[in-house]
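Allow me, if you will, to draw on your knowledge of protein folds for a short while. I have a record of one protein: its chain in single-letter code and its fold written as discrete structure tokens. Kindly check, if you would, that the fold set down in the tokens agrees with what the sequence suggests. Thank you for your consideration; the sequence and its tokens are set out here:
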Amino acid sequence: MYTTYVLKSESCQKYYYGHTKDIENRLKTHNMGRVRSTKSCVPWKIHYQEQFDSKSEAYQRELFFKSIDGYVYLIKTGIIK
């Protein structure tokens, strides 16, 4: 199973979108400062996640979240503010 996720920074109140096969390990990587785009706003927590059978589906969902239509969807559904 693959996961598309939304992380929320507890210090900066920012969101980060990604996908992974191991969500717990990926969260640890983010919180240890090993991801360049998230290291300035640690700690992060899992805010939202969706499960997919394939990596391709998870990646496509991540790209949707990063698009303007995805951003509007996340706001309208109350997933992000």
